Amino acid sequence: MAWLRRFGSYVPERRVGNGEIAARIGKDAAWIQEMTGIEERRWAADGESVADMGVEAARTCLDGDARPGLVLVSSGTSPRRFPGPAAVVAQRLGLAGVPAVDLPVASAGAVFAMALGCDLSPVYGDVLVVASEKMSEAVDREPMDPSSGMLFGDGAGACLISQREGGWRVVSSVLHSDGSMADLIQLPLRGGFAMDGMGAIAAATRRIPAVIQEAFARCGRDPKDTQQFVLHQANQNLLVRVARALEVPAERMYTNIRRYGNTSSASMLIAAAEAGPSGNLVCFAGFGAGLHWGAVVAEQAA
């Protein structure tokens, strides 16, 4: 049995409002907010790396008595092919020698790492999950792509998973992948971010509610009994669609996309750290490039 003991997050200081983006893509700032729910996003400083942000998020998450036996780091924006940021994050946290594994799974990486961490915690003890993304490097180009430049921000989130009781007990998890749609969302080795926006929204609208229903069915629960859903913050309108499909009030979908934009795999954990999961049941879910999607259901400790 695995427990989600703590969450942590970090976002850069620089705020990039819709006005700054609108001037570059030939759109109105109000239009950006209407289409995405975003008012501003945070962009990392030039010298601020994926590993830097991941370390900061992890430090806000770790228990004083916790020494993780495994580190899982999700990032689709590592600055090099290899090595990824996991080993660097672990070393800078004083965990040199602890196995550190990279999961280059954009957007859905946090939910994948969380589910895998729960399965691996009986072997490794405490598992530190970190998701860190510097999406600004992918979209801050000239000319800026009108469809993707307005969406993305930078930041990192973290979660400590343990066999030690306390926090939220994980009762179910489901993961899926489908490589037949791998070209739908991608960041090539050369060039900027590329996405079929309409195709991605259509796929997410179908798959997110379905995987949430599947995760709840596995533990004999009902999504309608859940007071809080903490999902990947892709688009405010998508969160509303998911709520409608699940027949739950939209206000149960925790959202902070207005302030941070879409921070890819970091977004779900940043949201969890801010939300402070509430109610008897909470659901975490994500969808992203790959295609990859999944859900985790947890209940509050008695």
Helix vs. strand class: alpha+beta
Radius of gyration: 18 Å
Portion of residues within helices: 25-40%
Beta-strand portion reads: 25-35%
Number of helices: 10
Sheet with most strands = 9 strands, mixed
- For the biggest β-sheet, the strand order reads 5-4-6-7-1-8-13-12-11
Spatial shape: globular
> SSE string, helix = H, strand = E?
EEHHEHEHEHEHEEEEHEHHHEE
Poorly predicted sequence stretches spanning 5 or more consecutive residues: none
- Average pLDDT works out at 94
How many strand units? 13
CA distance, first residue to last residue: 14 Å
How would you describe this structure in keywords?
single chain; 302 residues; alpha+beta; two-stranded antiparallel sheet; 10 helices; 33% helix; globular
Give an overview of the whole structure.
- This protein is α+β, with helices and mostly antiparallel strands and 302 residues long.
- The chain is built from 10 helices and 13 strands.
- The chain has helices at 18-25, 29-36, 50-59, 86-92, 109-124, 136-139, 197-218, 236-246, 257-260, 267-275, and strands spanning 3-10, 14-17, 40-43, 70-74, 100-103, 127-134, 154-162, 168-177, 185-186, 194-195, 228-231, 281-288, 292-300.
- Strands 5-4-6-7-1-8-13-12-11 form a 9-stranded mixed β-sheet, sandwiched between helices. Strands 2-3 form a two-stranded antiparallel sheet. Strands 9-10 form a two-stranded antiparallel ribbon.
- A hairpin with a 3-residue loop joins strand 12 (281-288) and strand 13 (292-300).
- Helix 1 (18-25) packs across helix 2, helix 3 (50-59) crosses helix 4 (86-92) and helix 7 (197-218) crosses helix 8.
- The longest helix is centred in the C-terminal third of the chain and has 22 residues, at 197-218.
- The two termini are 14 Å apart.
- The relative contact order is 0.21.
- The model has no long low-confidence stretch (mean pLDDT 94).
